[in-house]
Design a protein that fits this description.
Helices cover about 15% and strands about 40% of the residues. The chain is α+β, with helices and mostly antiparallel strands. The protein has one domain: Clam (outer membrane lipoprotein receptor (LolB), chain A). The relative contact order is 0.21.
């Protein structure tokens, strides 16, 4: 009982931290011709059909390789998602690797629903996916690929909060840090490929 209360309090604190009323919501979504390298870290909250969970994340996008580590609040990695030119893979906390050609295929295989991993780096940078249908809502939110995307930025224009909403779930990423000039990385593929 105490554990459930503790988890409920932590989830409430994370969700409260996600609300940033002082930061303006992005209303202009230019087309993404390319996305520069970046590293980021923060917290994420996922709500699926009324049930929520949260975690921390470390995110690296370099040389068109995208790696997202999902961590417990104590820093233990519970999973990794990586996308490169060869496809997408996920690694669970036991080291089991799951492969697919696309993020959509992997999401359906592991989760049973689609999570737009292949577009996250674009939306986090305040852009929309090029050559794809989109709509801007009257309040400036972006609708693309059945997702409604809300983004707030810090004073430097970097992502502070990214909220993705679909009919089945919502994902909120709160960025504690974002570095748009990371040191060059030699990595040309997901590290889990060996």
């Amino acid at each position: 009982m105490k554990f459930k209360l503790y988890v409920s309090i932590l989830v409430a604190l994370v969700l409260a931290a996600c609300a940033q009323p002082n930061m303006p919501q992005q209303t202009h979504w230019p087309e993404a011709n390319n996305t520069g390298d970046f590293t980021a870290a923060g917290r994420l909250a996922v709500k699926i059909e009324g049930k929520g969970s949260y975690a921390n994340f470390d995110w690296v996008y370099q040389n068109q390789v995208q790696t997202i580590n999902v961590n417990t609040p104590l820093g233990n990695t519970v999973g990794q998602l990586c996308q490169d030119k060869q496809g997408v893979l996920a690694v669970d906390n036991k080291g089991q690797v799951y492969h697919a050609q696309t993020a959509t295929q992997l999401n359906r295989q592991l989760l049973g629903f689609e999570l737009p991993v292949q577009y996250l780096h674009i939306w986090a940078n305040g852009k929309r996916v090029a050559d794809a249908p989109y709509r801007l809502l009257s309040d400036g939110r972006l609708q693309q690929f059945d997702w409604t995307v809300t983004r707030t930025a810090n004073q430097a224009g970097q992502a502070r909060v990214l909220l993705l909403e679909s009919a089945k779930l919502s994902v909120r990423l709160v960025f504690d840090e974002m570095n748009t000039n990371p040191k060059p990385a030699p990595q040309q593929q997901c590290a889990a490929r060996g």
